[in-house]
Amino acid sequence: LKNLNEMLCPIIASEVKALNANLSTLEVLTKIDNYTLLDYSLISSPEITENYLVLNLKGVFYPLENLADPPFSPVPFVLPERSNSMLYIGIAEYFFKSASFAYFTAGAFNVTLSTKEISNHFVQNSQGLGNVLSRIAEIYILSQPFMVRIMATEPPVINLQPGNFTLDIPASIMMLTQPKNSTVETIVSMDFVASTSVGLVILGQRLVCSLSLNRFRLALPESNRSNI
Q: How far apart are alpha carbons 109 and 169 in whole angstroms?
């Protein structure tokens, strides 16, 4: 039996080492939607001990047509030293930031609403900004096509904090019209930044989220104003 162990152990150790090397170089890409891919390949060999198994995954989003890494680097982190649960999962801030950058680069945050879509949505919810849009739509709806274009000017900024995270969204809104036999004209353009906080609480087996608006800044550049 001793001789058998002496023969098998080096073979098994060699095979495990080779398997770890292959796993660490395995690229795993999954298409999330029409905008992004998720790379969750291993970045190092699995760490196996008597008490636990550790897998370090990459976890980065890419635009569908561009697999270049984001222009920022992940910050290393470690899980807390606990052993009273079967599974621990840690997600770095880099994961969310790469998603924000990938969707921004792919143009997922750019939306154009037609007159019909504005009428169906904003007129039914005509409060605040929706009221402004619905009034402008009423002026143009019978005379000429009217559109609202919403575009993120930068990738939304995500910051993780104990128990919650903040999300800052910089964007612009353009109200456009296209008279018959003419080019698209800008009626008015506004820039805004919305800062929100999302609280996370675990109740039993449920993850409960609460959303609050911290700050909303709306700017109307003088150079972009015109008579309506």
A: 10
The pLDDT of residue 227 is: 44
Two tokens, residue 50: 């008597």
What gap in Å lies between CA 125 and CA 227, rounded to an integer?
A: 25
Q: Which of 175, 105, 113, 103 is nearest to 140 (CA)?
A: 175
Rounded Cα–Cα distance for residues 60 and 65 (Å): 15
Low-confidence ranges of the chain (pLDDT < 70): 1-6, 9, 12-13, 16, 19-27, 115-116, 118-144, 221-228
Indicate the CATH number of 109-228 among 3.15.20.10, 1.10.10.410, 3.40.50.1000, 3.90.1150.10.
3.15.20.10
* Partners of residue 42 on adjacent β-strands: 57
Q: Which of 19, 21, 17, 37 is nearest to 29 (CA)?
A: 37
Its sign, for the CA torsion 91, 94, 100, 104, is: negative
| pTM of the model as a whole | 0.71
Residues of the chain with CATH 3.15.20.10: 109-228
Query: Which spans in the chain are helix H?
Result: 2-24, 93-105, 115-121, 129-140
| Residues facing residue 209 across a β-bridge | 200
Question: Measured at the alpha carbon of residue 171, what is the angle toward residues 136 and 100, in degrees to the nearest 5?
Answer: 140
Amino acid making up residue 168: D
Report the C-alpha gap between 22 and 46 in whole angstroms: 11
**Span between the terminal Cα atoms of the chain, in Å:** 92
Secondary structure letter of residue 1 according to DSSP: -
